Amino acid sequence: MVAAAGEGAAGTVITTRPRRSVVFTYGTLKRGFGNHALMEELTRSGDAVFLGSYRTQEKYPLVCGPYRVPFLLNLPGSGERVTGELYGVSSGGLARMDELEGTSRGHYERLPIKLVVLDEGETEEAEAYFAHSSYARELWMKNGRRGLCAYSEKEARGYVKRNERPQHLTFLDHIHLFVSSASDEPSDSSDPLTFN
Fold first, then answer.
1. Which of 40, 101, 122, 138 is catalytic?
2. Do 89 and 96 contact (CB within 8 A), yes or no?
3. pLDDT, tens digit, for every residue of 37-61?
4. Domain Gamma-glutamylcyclotransferase AIG2-like, which positions (predicted)?
5. Could you identify which of 46, 54, 149, 179 might form a hypothetical disulfide with 138, taking C-beta atoms 3.0 to 4.6 angstroms apart as the criterion?
6. Any catalytic annotation for residue 185?
């Protein structure tokens, strides 16, 4: 897809392709999960392309927070090697993903990550949405320092989309209530008021 064209020296036409970011998705943006409709929309508009299934090169904690929302924690060396999907995304597509992930509101941080192609061993550098550092350690402690290797249908059972959650609290309020709640046992309940 040609993004821009102009004249260079001696009247030659110069075309540039849109710059693409490479983003690792490990939770609800994956195929078959609650927010994948965004990736489908971006793919249809030419703002995203699926690049394959990957695994993190290092171990990272992948945990569930309030409303079964998945969080990758930027605590390399802890947890498991996490599997997910890789997408090439245009700057416009990346802005849409940043909005969904609340990067400007302190929900997630988009940071570099090294990946390995599943079954091939080839490495790739990308970015991933990590839980914001302001609460990541608390989530790790709340989950008993146990991480997942993949966000699967089992973990997604009970996931509640943003517009179906109580609206009188911010997402950060929900996270702080979750990490400060007394219960340490995960719940399979789909009750939107259940934080575990």
1. 101
2. no
3. 999 999 999 999 999 999 999 999 9
4. 23-133
5. 179
6. no
